[in-house]
C-alpha cells in the first residue's frame, strides 16, 4: 500500500487525509484494493457509528479511491474489493434517523453505488454488482432505493440476463411502492416471465396510483404478456384495463392489448362489448380498434355475429369517411363466415361500393329481415328472407351495368387482398361518397365538373334520394365558374367570402352555370384592374409569373391537386381534409362517384399549393381582390392564430413551399397508399386512377 495511504488508514489520521489528493492517480492506483479492505475493517468496528473521526477519514478515503478508479479506468481491477465493501454495509443499519440524515453506512453505500453502477455497460462489473444491488432494495432507505432503481433501469438495457435472476426481488420492490422499477419489467419478462405472471393481477391494481410514464411502462408489460397468450392471468386484468380506456394518453395502447387478446380468445371480451361500444362513440378516433374487436368477437358464433354486425353497420352509416374501409372489411369478413345472415344477396350488396350509406341501409334491412326469420334461417337457408335483387339495384344507380359493377368490385377485392398480405398496412383509399359532416368547415373545389357532380348527387341521380335522406350533402365552391363567368367581375366581395365559408352550418353552395369547362386566359377574373401600387400580391405575382407557371408544371407531376379542401377544427389545432377524384371517370373508373380522402396536419402548405395552381391557370397575375384568392384567404385565416402572418404576406415572403415540406407531403401520400391507386398520366397531363390509366386490366 502507498505509504501515505497506509499511514492515514492505520492511524485514522484526519489531519493527513486531505494530503491524499496531492498524489497522482497513477501513483496510488496499485494500492486501491488493499485500501478498500482496510476501510471495510474500520467501518465494521463496533464504535464506528459513533466515532466522527473515523467516519470523516473513511469518507475522504472513499472519495479519493473512487476518483482514482474513475480516472484510471480500473473499475474491473478493483471491482471485487469495491463490491465487498459495498456489501458489508448491508450488515449495518441503513434507515435514516428522524432528521432524514443518512446513517454512516448508508453514506458509504451511496458513494460506492454511483462508482460501480455508472459502469452498467461493463458485464464483468455488473456480474459482481447486481446480486448485491438488489439486496439494497429491501433495506428501508427510500433515497438509496430510488437511486439504486435508477441505475438498475440502466443496467436492464445492457445486462437484462443478470437482472433476470433477481426478478422476484424486483417485483416485490415494485409492489412495495418502488414504481421506478416498472420500467425494467418488460425487459425482465422476456428473460424470466413466471415471477411476473404470478403477480400480474397485483401489478394491474397499481394503475390508478401510478404517474403517466409509470402507467406506460406497465402497459408495455401487458402488451408483451398479451402477445405471449397468457390468457389465464390476463382475463382477470381485462376489467381494470377497460376502466382506464377513457384515459386519452393510454386508450389507444389499451385497445391494442385488448385487440391482441381478441385475436386468439375473442370470448374473453364478449361481455365487454357495451364498454367498447361506448368508447367507440365517445372517442371516434379509436373506432378502428373497436371495430376489429367487434369483428373478432362476432366470429365466435352466429348469434354474436348478428350483435356485432348491427354495431359495425351503424358505424358504417355514421362514422367519418376515413374509417369506412376498416368497417366494411370487418362486416364482409363476418358475412362471409356466416353466409346465412345475408343469404344469396350478400355479394350484390358489396357491389354497391360507391355508397356506404346505401350499403349500411341494405345491411340493416337484411339483418332485421333475417332476425325475424331466425328459426327458418337455421333450418332452411333456402327460404331465408332476403331483399329482392331489383330493390338492391334500385338503391344505387339504375344505369350501372352489372358487368361494370362486377369488374369494379373485383378490382377492389384484389386491392384488399394485396393489402391484407402486408401486416399492419394502412388502407386509406375510399369507396364511397364523403360522409355527413357536422363540424364547421370551409371548402375549395378546383373544377366545375366536381361541382356539377355535387349537384347531381343532390338531385339528379337515382342514388341521390338515399344520400339526401341521411342528411349528406356535397357542398363546394367552383372557382372555375367564378373565373369564367361573364358576371364574375360583378360578384361582390361579401358574397365571395360567404361562398368560401360555411361557419354557421353546412350549406349547399350553388355554382354559377357556364358553358366553358376551363378558365380563359385573360378572363375578367385575372384582368380585374387592381391599383398596382397598393396590391402587393399582384405586383409580386407579376414579377414571378413565369416562374410560377414553370414550377406548377413540374410540381403537378409529383403532387396531385385536391378537388376539394375542408378545414376542420380539432382539439389542439386544425387539419385539412382533402378529396381527390379521377377526372377521366372512364367506364371502369375506381373513383367515378367517390373521392380518395386524405387528412393532413399541414393545411397552410396545401393552401399554398392550391394558390399556385390557381395562378398557373391565368395569363395575368391574380389580385388580392380576386374571388378565388379571397376564398383561399378565408381558408388560410381559419388555420392561423391571431398575430401570425396574413395570407398575402405569407404568399409574398415565400413564393414557393420549402422542398422538405413537399417531401413530407409525398411521404404522407405514400404512407396512405395514394400512389397505389393514382398515377400521373403524361398523355393526359393529369392524375388518374389505376383503372383509367390501365384500362386493359379491366378487360383482362
Automatic annotation (TrEMBL):
Composition bias type Polar residues, residue spans: 501-512
Intracellular or extracellular location(s): Cell membrane; Endomembrane system
Disordered: annotated span: 453-472, 501-527
GO biological process: regulation of signal transduction
Record's keyword terms, sorted: Cell membrane, Membrane
GO cellular component, one term: plasma membrane
Name of the protein in its database record: MELT protein
Gene that this polypeptide is encoded by: Veph1
